[in-house]
Amino acid sequence: MIIFQVARAVAFVVASGFGGDDGALTDTANGAGPARDSLAALTVSVPAYTRSLPPAASMTGGLTEEWLMAQTGPTGGEDWQCLTEAIYFEARGESLDGQIAVAEVILNRVDSPLYPRTVCGVVKQRGSGGCQFSYICDGRTDRMREKQAADLAGRIARAMLDGAPRILTDGATSFHTRTVRPSWSRRYIQTASIGAHIFYRKPGGNS
Q1: Class of the CATH-defined domain 56-205
Q2: Of 63, 92, 151, 193, which is most buried by a Cβ count within 10 Å?
Q3: What is the mean pLDDT of residues 74-102?
Q4: How many other C-beta atoms are found inside a 10 Å radius of the C-beta of residue 175?
């Protein structure tokens, strides 16, 4: 936008007779040499983009797709990659809130003394004859083939790791789809229902 408007301004200067044969900027109408005063008087409307985007931690009303897509391309280390893949494989068909909710569960587990202390540790945890997250044990190649969905998952993961508020699941550390009803769901406290998933936390204050 800025480049386009500056280019228009330069084109206006040239079309108005500013610019001699030798390439120097001159006022040919008056033969007055360099037209610095004339150029200075030209008003160019350049919008100000000095206002930076608010940090993830300040998004108290929740993340929005507009905010996420305005960020630079997401990058990160091992935990970012694990969280991106978990969001993608567990919730890519869900709404934005549905995907964020899955990220909340994983990070709530990281914060709990009952689970591994890293994102990758939580996502890849095994026990009770299976995996905590189904895509880890489904035997399929964990390759994110849908580029747009993978990009959005990566942006969500980056924002959540950067401290975006967890406001959707009320401290949930477990979830399941509506098509199943595991035995633990009868003992846990339901905290949210978003899209295809129902979210829970353990009773008694133990996350």
Answers
A1: mainly alpha
A2: 63
A3: 97
A4: 24
d(CA 92, CA 161): 18
| Domains in the chain: boundaries | 2-41, 56-205
- Buried b vs exposed e over 124-155: b needs ≥16 C-beta within 10 Å? beeeeeeebbeebeeeeeeebeeeebbbbbbb
CA distance 126 to 116: 11
Tens digits of residue pLDDT in 111-143: 999 999 999 999 999 877 688 888 888 777 778
Angle subtended by helix axes 147-161 and 78-91, to nearest 10: 130
- H helix runs in the chain, sequence order: 2-15, 36-41, 65-70, 78-91, 96-111, 119-123, 147-161
Distances (CA, A) of 131 to 80, 121, 124: 20, 12, 7
User: How far is the C-alpha of 29 from the C-alpha of 16, rounded, in Å?
Assistant: 9
List CB contacts of 165: < 8 A, sequence separation 6 or more: 57, 59, 60, 62
Is pTM beyond 0.85 here? Answer: no
- Residue 46 phi/psi, 5° resolution? -115, 115
Which amino acid is located at 3 in the chain?
A: I
Give the orientation angle of helix 147-161 with respect to helix 96-111, to 10 degrees. Answer: 40
* Coil vs helix vs strand at 192: strand
